[in-house]
Each structure stands twice: as C-alpha cells, then as structure tokens.
Amino acid sequence: MAKYSTGGSSGSGEADACELCGTESASLRPANVAGADLDVCPDCAPHDDNAHKDNKKTDQSGGGSDRNPVEAANSDTTMWDGDTSHWEEEGTDYDDDPLPYLVSGYGSVAEEARQDAGLQRGELADELEIPESDLLAIEQGRANQAGISGSVVGALEERLDIELAE
C-alpha cells in the first residue's frame, strides 16, 4: 500500500506539509512514527521512533563517535520529554471512552466512504468536531496508536454509514 502524502506533487519547490501535524515546512525529514514512514517537520521530529533508538545507542556507547556524520548533522537535537498533555484535548478521558475492536482494513473503509461522500478530510473533521489528525490516523489504520476514542469511531460510522468496529 502506498504511503499517504499531504504534500503536493507538482515539484514547484513550494513547502510540503508534515504528514503528522499538517504544518507546511520546507524542512521535512523522514521519520518512523508508530510504524509508519512519514515526512515530518522539525516540531514533529522528536516523535521519530528511530531517533530514540539512535539516542539510546549513543547514550550506551558513551559518546556516539561512531555515528554517521550525515545522520548526526540531520538529526533534531530536541528530545521528547514524555509530556503528552499537548496531544490531548482538555477533558478527554480515554479510559471512559475506549477504542472498540476495529475490523480489518478499517482505514481503507473509512477513507473510501469519505471520498464516496464527496468530502475532504478537513470538511468531515470539522463536521464531526474532531481534529483532522484523528481522522487521518483512522484512515491510515493508526487509530490505536493515536489514542482515538470510541466515540470518534462511532461518530464516523454514523456519519458515513459504515461499520468500523466489531
């Protein structure tokens, strides 16, 4: 399956959009986030799972002098501090609204139904009053990793008349 890209393919030299947060940036870099290969902006670069592995190796080796100089020059020096509060909306309690067991291929089902309804992702997200990034996570099959709540899945099922949960 092809990787989703929010950036343009015109090659006009304009900034592309970060595939994690959607921010336009001329400084995108590849990252592996929750198993997905994405092009991310500098603000989202700390979420790169591979960056954390590299930092652990560097810390264990006592200096990292054997690190690839190109990789070292391109890496973001910002470390994730473990604070996830900026990811969650105030009042969100995922323990009270757990994600149900989702059917196989739920992301493709959701994306196809949205397109069949003639809706852009942003339009549907606005209508459901959810962040567009939550809808993107569902369509990319990353609902569990993104901490999507059961009510979001339920609202999407109702609006698009589809079944995503078993």
Written overview of the protein:
The protein has 166 residues and is mainly α. It has helices at residues 49-61, 69-74, 106-116, 121-128, 132-139, 143-146, 150-160, and strands at residues 16-17, 24-25, 29-33, 36-40. The protein starts with 15 loop residues before the first strand and ends in a 6-residue tail after the last helix.
Largest sheet strand order: 1-2
CA-atom Rg in angstroms: 18 Å
- In whole angstroms, how far apart are the ends? 24 Å
- Estimate the mean pLDDT confidence: 75
Outline, from the CA principal axes? Answer: globular
Low-confidence stretches: 1-13, 54-65, 69-78
Number of strands: 4
Task: Give a brief description.
The chain has 166 residues and is mostly helical.
Which short descriptors sum up this protein?
single chain; 166 residues; mainly alpha; two-stranded antiparallel ribbon; two-stranded antiparallel sheet; 7 helices; 8% strand; globular; disordered N terminus
Show the helix and strand layout.
Blueprint: E1 16-17, E2 24-25, E3 29-33, E4 36-40, H1 49-61, H2 69-74, H3 106-116, H4 121-128, H5 132-139, H6 143-146, H7 150-160
Antiparallel strand pairs: 1-2, 3-4
Helix pairs in contact: 4-5
